[in-house]
Specification:
557 residues, 4 domains, 69% helix, 1% strand
Length: 557
């Protein structure tokens, strides 16, 4: 019910409810693209044997919904000054962050440990080159981009405010004020082909799901085994086709609405409601009929088609077999006495070269410093980019941050850092205060074992040691020198027993051996402080014993 009016009459377009544009279209577009995304991830899941791809479906749905609503929001007149490229880049940054968080949990590792975080800080590329993260991000970004494309397409199909204002004005309007004509027919064609090619990809994924891809032996297609069709994929395919048909009918209605507006044809106000209702009932009837159609090999026509294809393939293989036999028979007539060439002698093995010693690595302080600086700059840029993207999206959507809440969180985090820093310095001070006592306890626990095989570095000042350590050095050095002279200390001997052994071998040094052993026992097993005044006499005893043992060695020579 429409009539052709004269040029003197102002024309209004078909009134569409805002509920269709704001809720129905974005939601159906998101569901349709998500169903296609689910088919692709189901194929990857069947090929890899892993169920971690299934969780990406919900993330893809949210990304598609954001893409559709972002397109509607950016096309408003109030957002003409907003940079589309910057806004989309901010959206992409947030999507990458969310997908990476999902990749951590999907792999079963959870949040990275402290060692992994330190490794990421030193090597930023390892954070961004995870194969599962890259493939997941690529799939989600493609779905997000498809949602943006469909959102822009339906936004352009709708009657703009300029077109409605121009054709609803008075008849004496200027023709120079006419809005730019939108090629809605091209837009409808583009939507149809995008939806159709998506259906082709969907059908291919459904077909691949009937094979055991994870059990395929390399590239041997004959090793593939069949399995039954998954019902949820069939329902998803049916939903994809039905939603696409309904959106195509709405796109066709928008095309006719624009054409009637330009041709001054006044449609019936209830046309949009009847159009949507009739198309919906038609599609539901088609879905009901499709639900009762047998699928797979249970359908007699499918069995007949399978038999015909198998027979054709058998005939083709038999023909190729006959052609191969004929070719071999003709070849035997021309070359009857062909013998296979003798196998060439195997080349001698290469000589075994002696291992080459590599020069010691040079200090790479400059390279490590450069790598640290580069990694710090990379992570600084990443953090700044993520924070800027989140603030850009929030502020441009008209959402203002609660400054009071942000200030309170900042104060709480600052207080926590100060408390943690104070505890850290308190523990460090306790360690410094308890360090001498810990060393004394360690020397007591070592006991005689330290006396047997304890060693001091050559590069130290004897006078710089504490009195207790100097006495221990005098005794250990004497034990070492006596061992070199043939009188070694057994594992079961105490210092007193070993002193008796020394006096039996060198009775001339009995007094010095007793003095040094007594001082060592006091320094080793007594926690009482050692007076610095006792060190010089013991040093003289040690030097006399050293000269005595050296003289004994010369006498033996």
């Amino acid at each position: 019910m429409m009539s052709k009016e004269t040029q003197e009459t102002a024309v209004s377009p078909i009134p569409f409810s805002s509920w269709h544009h704001n809720v129905v279209y974005p939601l159906l577009i998101a569901i349709m693209v998500t169903l296609l995304f689910m088919a692709v991830t189901n194929t990857l899941q069947a090929a890899s044997g892993s169920f971690r791809w299934g969780g990406l479906t919900f993330l893809a749905f949210l990304a598609i919904l954001e893409g559709v609503y972002g397109s509607r929001w950016l096309n408003n007149l109030e957002q003409m000054m907003v940079s589309h490229l910057a806004y989309r880049a901010a959206e992409l940054t947030i999507i990458a962050l969310v997908v990476h968080l999902y990749a951590w949990f999907a792999l079963g590792n959870g949040l990275p440990s402290l060692s992994e975080l330190l490794n990421y800080l030193r090597h930023p590329l390892e954070f961004f080159t995870d194969p599962f993260f890259l493939i997941s991000l690529l799939l989600v970004v493609l779905a997000w981009q498809q949602g943006i494309a469909f959102g822009n397409l339906f936004q352009e199909l709708a009657i703009s405010q300029a077109e409605e204002a121009y054709f609803h004005s008075k008849p004496d309007r200027w023709h120079n004020d006419a809005p730019i004509h939108t090629k809605r027919g091209t837009l409808v064609t583009n939507f149809f082909w995008q939806w159709a090619w998506g259906g082709v990809i969907f059908i291919i994924c459904v077909g691949l799901s009937t094979f055991d891809l994870d059990k395929a032996a390399g590239l041997n297609l004959l090793a593939l085994t069949r399995r039954s069709l998954q019902p949820h994929l069939l329902l998803a395919l049916l939903g994809y086709l039905l939603i696409g048909f309904w959106l195509l009918s709405q796109a066709r209605l928008a095309l006719l609405n624009g054409r009637w507006l330009f041709e001054n044809i006044v449609p019936t106000p209830s046309l949009a409601r009847h159009w949507s209702r009739s198309s919906l009932w038609t599609l539901l009837l088609i879905a009901l009929l499709a639900a009762f159609i047998p699928i797979g090999s249970t359908f007699p026509a499918a069995q007949l088609l399978t038999t015909l294809l198998a027979g054709i393939l058998y005939i083709v293989n038999f023909i190729f077999y006959l052609i191969t036999l004929l070719f071999l028979a003709l070849a035997s007539l021309f070359w009857p006495n062909i013998t296979p060439p003798a196998a060439a002698d195997a080349p001698p093995p290469p000589p075994i070269l002696p291992p080459q010693t590599l020069p010691p690595p040079t200090a790479g302080g400059g390279g490590e410093l450069l790598a640290t600086v580069v990694s710090s700059l990379v992570w600084t840029a990443v953090l700044v980019g993520v924070v800027a993207a989140i603030l850009f999206v929030i502020n441009d959507r008209g959402k203002q941050l609660n400054r009071q809440l942000a200030r309170r969180l900042w104060l709480l985090s600052t207080l926590w850092l100060r408390e943690w820093w104070g505890k850290f310095w308190q523990q460090l001070s306790n360690i410094q205060l308890n360090w001498p006592a810990a060393r004394a306890d360690e020397g007591t626990k070592k006991g005689d074992e330290v006396g047997k095989n304890g060693r001091f570095s050559r590069f130290f000042r004897l006078n710089a040691l504490p009195p207790r350590e100097q006495i221990r050095y005098f005794y250990l050095a004497t034990v070492k020198r006596a061992e070199q002279r043939g009188v070694a200390r057994a594992a079961h001997q105490t210092p007193s027993e070993y002193a008796a052994q020394l006096k039996d071998n060198w009775p001339d040094a009995n007094t010095d051996i007793d003095d040094l052993t007594t001082a060592f026992l006091h320094a080793q097993y007594n926690h009482a402080p050692v007076a610095p005044e006792t060190v010089p006499p013991l040093k003289a005893v040690w030097q006399r014993l050293k000269r005595f043992l050296q003289s004994q060695a010369r006498d033996k020579q």
